[in-house]
Amino acid sequence: MSVITVLNGGTQTTVQDAGRPGHRHLGIPRSGAADRLSFAIANHLVGNVWDAPALECALGGLHLRFEKDTTIALSGAQMWAQINGMNIDLNRAVGVEAGDILTLSYARAGCRSYIAVAGGIAATEFLGSVSTYLPAALGGIEGRALKAGDELDLAGDPSGPINAIPKGYIPFLSGHAVLRAGAGPEFDLLSACSRRYLFTTPFIATSATDRMGSRLRGDRIVTEADFAMTSSPLLPGTLQCPPDGQPILALADAHCTGGYARGLHVIQADQWLLGQIAPGMQISFRRCFAAEAPDILRTRNAMWGALIPDFSF
Predict the structure, then answer these.
(1) What gap in Å lies between CA 50 and CA 61, rounded to an integer?
(2) Tag placement on the chain: N or C end, fewer CB within 10 Å?
C-alpha cells in the first residue's frame, strides 16, 4: 500500500531533492529544490538527511491523503495548512494518521512550500537525483507534476529523531524580496542609467514566472549601444538583459546558456530566496562586491550547518 494518495496536485507540485549538479555542459540544469533552505528545514524537522526527496508545492492547492501513520513537516511559503480541517503550524513536525487529509491553501507570502515525510519520497532517479525537471520530463513521478490519483511511497525508513528549529532561525518571507547581487560579465556594457536603476528601483515579477525564470517589469535595462553576443554560460541567479529592456532573472531550472547581456548575478547565500519569487512580488537588488560574497556565504553555511548537519547553500 502506498503511503500517500494525491487528491489534488495543486497549481504545480513536484518531487525534488538537492538536484543533479555537474551536468550543465550536457545541457542539463541542476534543478532540485528551488528554495534549498526551506527544503532542508522541512527534512530536518522529520529526522531526514537534509537532501532527502520531498514535495515542492508552488502557490498551493495541494490535497493529500495519508494511507499510513507517519510524520510530516512543512516549510517555506506562507500557506494555510490543515489536517482534516484543523490548522497546523509550519516549520514544525506533525504526526498524521492513516486516513488524514492534508490541504494547502494558496500562498500569502512566498511561492513554494516544502512537504517532507519521514523517510523521504520514493521517485525515479536520473543521473543520481530524483528531482523533477519538467521541460525534459526527467526524474520525479514520470517527469511531471503530481496529479489526482498518484500514489507515493517512502524512499526508506526515518533516519533520525524529530527535530525543532529555533524561532529566530525561521526565514521571513514577504511580498518584497531583497537580493544581494554582484556585477555580471556584461554589467559595464549597460547604460549608466541602467546600472543605476538596477540598484535603486524595484522590479515586479510578472506572470511569466516559473522554475526556469522570472521576467521582471520595471525601468528599462539596456546596453549603451546595439549589442549582440554568442550564447554564453548561464546560471541560476543571473539577471539577463534582453533588447526589450525588461530583465529576466534565471531560476532553478534555468537554461544552461543564453545570448542576452548578463547584468547581475545574485550571490549564492541569497539564492534560496529565488525559489520564493511569485508573480506580483516586488524584487530589489542590493549591490554586493566580489570580496564580500565569500564571507557572507561562509557565515551563512556555518550558522545553518551547525543546526542542520551537512547543509550548505
Answers:
(1) 25
(2) N
Integer Cα distance of 190 and 186 in angstroms: 7
**What percent of the residues of the chain are helix, what percent strand, and what percent coil, each to the nearest 5?**
20, 35, 50
Which grid cell sits at 24? Answer: 550543465
Encoded amino acid at 172, one letter? F
Amino acid of residue 240:
Q
Distance between CA atoms of residues 196 and 193, nearest Å: 5
Cα separation, 177 vs 191, whole angstroms: 25
Query: Stretch 262-285: mean pLDDT, rounded?
Result: 97
Asked whether 275 and 38 are in contact (CB, 8 A), the reply is yes
CA atoms 142, 145, 149, 150: torsion sign = positive
Residue 284 grid cell: 530589489
Integer CA distances (angstroms), 194 to 176, 188, 220, in order: 21, 10, 7
Per-residue CA distances from 119 to 132, 157, 189, 213 (Å): 19, 5, 50, 31
Q: How far apart are CA 95 and CA 279, in angstroms?
A: 33
| pTM more than 0.90 | yes
What pLDDT digit, counting tens, does each position of 104-157 carry? 999 999 999 999 999 999 999 999 999 999 999 999 999 999 999 999 999 988
